[in-house]
Amino acid sequence: MTPRRPQRRPVVELYERIVDAVRDDVYPPGSTLPSELELATAFGVSRPALREALILLQEDGVITVRRGVGRTVSERPVRRGFERLQPMEALLGEGSAKVRPLRRILEEPTDLVMQHLPVPASCEVRFWNSVIDVDGMPACLTEEWCLPDETLAEIAPALPDALTAGEPAPHTMLHTLISGAPYLPLTGSSTMTATVLGRLRGTTFGRSPDTPVVLVTHVVSVERTPLLVAKYVLPSGAPTITVRQSR
């Protein structure tokens, strides 16, 4: 079976290419971008498509526009948000975030899993529990479940091997799935709830059970098939996560 390639909006693809150029210092912070004609030629796109991407870049603060000066790359570092599906360790800070595995087991699906994944109660699903440390301090507790291996193999044969290679993997499950089959057209949706840490999770963080937290429930799908469900626990004081939205 030939792997299906992801279909992404051209303007999002162009947006990411320009952001990559900024991150690679092709257009360093504080510099003025070339003219629209020069940029369109450099990226091989039409000027209307370029203008749409430039509007999104301005809305996200990647560039600023001033009369008589033109488009200038912002001084602050470029950060990626939820528009492009990424594992939590990347959102918390590439380079400074490290995943610390706690548990990597097979278990019967919980009510939460069966609510979000198309699995029977009699099967076994893979469960990964991890802590993400940022600059040496625990910043996020992750709990992730995915479809059974035989179902994963039908979607992408490489996925079961990716999840079992080099255990315990020093990554989140989402990171491993994205790396194991980068061609899959994955999408994600999240809900966020304000709650408290609780006794068991408080022990993991070494913090009081009544510490305020944001609980993110994240479902990742390939086309319309849910592939993974995750819970991310972010206590007060966790690093900021940029959420970028466009239409």
From TrEMBL:
- Classification via Pfam families: GntR
SUPFAM superfamilies linked to this entry: Chorismate lyase-like, Winged helix' DNA-binding domain
* HTH gntR-type domain span: 8-76
Reading the lineage from the top rank, the first entry is: Bacteria
Q: Which UniProt keywords apply?
A: DNA-binding, Transcription, Transcription regulation
Report the protein name in the record: GntR family transcriptional regulator
Q: Which organism's genome codes for this protein? A: Haloechinothrix salitolerans
